[in-house]
Amino acid sequence: MQAYGYLIRVDRKRLYYSGDIAGSADITPHLIKIDILICEGYHIDFEELVGVCVSKRVKRLVLTHLSDNDFNNSHKLHKIARQGGLDKLVIAKDGLRLKI
What is the pTM of this model? Predict the structure, then answer.
């Protein structure tokens, strides 16, 4: 499967949007000075993703494409993120608007 990611610049903010990925190695090289990472959460180990975000100093993670179980238990994802050192996690829903 081929998927794409996009780097979007708005004023002085940098947003990286990834399509479906097989693992964090697919996006890690692109996470340089990223303010917001929008990433699917279905095909990746969430704890690993949190570690990458923390090590790359991603300021905010927005998760899309979650399993029903993860979506319905998003409080567990928030807890894992906080324990891993990531304070800003957003669980995307249809119609979500982000302030950049």
Answer: 0.92
